Amino acid sequence: MNRKTLIVANWKMNLNVSQSSLLMHRLDKKIVSHHNIEIVIAPSMLALQPLSKEINHQKFSLACQNAYFKDEGAFTGEVSFSMLNGLVNYGIVGHSARRIYFHESLEEVRDKVKAAVRNDIVPILCIGETKPERLADETSQVLHDQLTSAIYHLTSDEVSKIVIAYEPIWAISTFDGEQSKPADMQHALKFIRHQIEDLHGYDVAKEVRILYGGSVDSHDILAYLSLEDCDGVLVGAASLNYEQFSTIVQKAYTLKYSKE
Ligand code: 13P
Predict the structure, then answer these.
(1) How far, in Å, is the centroid of ligand 1 from the Cα of 88?
(2) CATH 3.30.450.40 correct for 5-259
(3) Distance between Cα 201 and ligand 1 center (Å)
(4) Cα(145) to centroid of ligand 1, in Å?
(5) Which pLDDT belongs to residue 161?
(6) For the stretch 190-220, what's the b/e string if a residue is b when 16 or more beta carbons lie within 10 angstroms of its beta carbon?
(7) Among 60, 114, 167, 201, which is most exposed with the fewest C-beta within 10 angstroms?
(8) What is the DSSP letter of 138?
(9) What confidence score (pLDDT) does residue 260 get?
(10) What are phi and psi of 168, to 5 degrees?
(11) Can you give the residue ranges of every domain in the chain?
(12) Which ranges of 156-201 does DSSP label H, i.e. alpha helix?
């Protein structure tokens, strides 16, 4: 199964509209497109519309970092997935920052996954354990609970198209920022694929793309991308630096090319 490698830049709450355009312009100059690598940029909500007019859509897709699960109504301050339909191809759902700072529950994450799918936006579902959970040997339980609850309402066909990002929260720069050992991450990635297989069968499990979402940079990227069940990365801080991010893409390309 040749799953297309997915490299996602999560700019988080950084860069205003003109800074976003400038970074996009630099990335466009540096990055060469490749048919087997998909590059997705998740800027702030405000930058999505202008970037959608500026980017080379052959090379880049856009993602929202969050959206509300209702399609419309009196939800002051929110933006819905239905409003983002046509503007983004992907939507990050359940990022650890949202679960931790904004107390997003399993039910809200589930409803957002469903709303994204309903509006033809591919959810990038983030799941992962905290440091105390890891130390208590609860990683599998946490991954199981976050995954099964989030995809509960989806059909097998819908599940086969979603993206899952494994984010060990302790290995994200915002939180503990501990460096994970790439080889140790394969176990969790495989566990996620097995869970999908248990729920929806082998054919669906082998379609689903699973990303590594802890900290990566241009130096360690190859070690993560070489893991058997790793189909790409969700990059935070390093995606704000065009040299770093374009090197990450270049290395992903080299690895993929070496396998073709
Ligand atoms: P960092 O790469 O900044 O650690 O963030 C990872 C992440 O949260 C990706 O969404």
Answers:
(1) 20
(2) no
(3) 30
(4) 22
(5) 97
(6) ebbbebbeebbeeebbebbbbbbbbbbbbeb
(7) 201
(8) -
(9) 67
(10) -70, 115
(11) 5-259
(12) 156-161, 182-200
